[in-house]
């Protein structure tokens, strides 16, 4: 089982190759606006430098969101294009689940994990997972204030992480049950591919024609100003 995975949910851009669930190659860039310019080069390199060809792939996996509108469009359109060109199935993994997979082994089984992606102002995209990886509160867009997660924090220790967690730190740092790791956890194709292995075995394939990014909320633009005559 050879799976190529892509994650362009945020400003970072990463591709990874997993064989039978084991990581064999990964390229990651953490600079702004790299997805459009470098994604195709990275995915070609990770396959070739790992000793394989694109025709040997069994599936393409992609982080479906939430995240950056532009980033998600680029990653998913690239993944769909590969699926069409190579006649391979598409696997889509929740970006927040992939983030959780990066750290869940480092915390006790009774802790809850809350990955967060910055959604501008005081809003974040987030979800709650058990340390086992099981989702206990679905992905949502939350505006952070002093009452955020109060019901969960009253009964659980919660680890907040990701680039949106700083918004929580400012208002929840006084809460003993709220933990904020110093390490910044960035979405990565490394764990998207790992989770995609299980999805492949369960044959959880997407319809390549109709699949759309998981934007979570509608794209908002400023209304155009009226022209001054």
UniProtKB/TrEMBL annotation:
SUPFAM superfamilies: Actin-like ATPase domain. Pfam families: TsaD. Residues 32-145 form the Gcp-like domain. The keyword Transferase applies. GO terms for biological process: tRNA threonylcarbamoyladenosine modification. InterPro entries: ATPase_NBD, Gcp-like_dom, T6A_TsaB. Keywords: Transferase. The keyword Transferase applies. One of its GO terms (cellular component) is cytosol. Gene3D superfamilies: 3.30.420.40. GO terms for molecular function: transferase activity. PANTHER family: TRNA N6-ADENOSINE THREONYLCARBAMOYLTRANSFERASE, TRNA THREONYLCARBAMOYLADENOSINE BIOSYNTHESIS PROTEIN TSAB. This is tRNA (Adenosine(37)-N6)-threonylcarbamoyltransferase complex dimerization subunit type 1 TsaB. It comes from Spirosoma aureum.
């Amino acid at each position: 089982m050879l799976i190529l995975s892509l994650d362009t949910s945020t400003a970072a851009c990463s591709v990874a190759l997993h064989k039978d669930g084991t990581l064999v190659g990964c390229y990651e860039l953490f600079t702004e606006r790299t997805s459009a310019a470098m994604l195709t080069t990275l995915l070609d390199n990770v396959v070739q430098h790992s000793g394989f060809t694109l025709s040997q792939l069994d599936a393409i996996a992609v982080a479906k969101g939430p995240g950056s509108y532009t980033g998600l469009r680029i990653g998913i359109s690239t993944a769909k294009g590969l699926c069409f060109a190579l006649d391979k199935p598409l696997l889509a993994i929740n970006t927040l689940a992939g983030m959780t997979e990066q750290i869940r082994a480092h915390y006790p089984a009774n802790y809850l994990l809350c990955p967060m992606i910055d959604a501008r102002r005081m809003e974040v995209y987030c979800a709650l997972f058990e340390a086992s990886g099981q989702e206990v509160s679905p992905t949502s867009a939350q505006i952070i204030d002093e009452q955020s997660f109060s019901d969960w924090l009253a009964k659980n220790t919660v680890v907040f992480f990701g680039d949106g967690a700083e918004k929580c730190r400012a208002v929840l740092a006084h809460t003993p049950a709220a933990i904020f790791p110093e390490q910044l956890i960035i979405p990565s194709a490394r764990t998207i591919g790992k989770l995609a292995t299980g999805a492949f075995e369960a044959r959880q394939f997407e319809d390549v024609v109709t699949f759309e990014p998981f934007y979570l909320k509608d794209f908002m633009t400023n209304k155009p100003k009226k022209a001054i005559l």
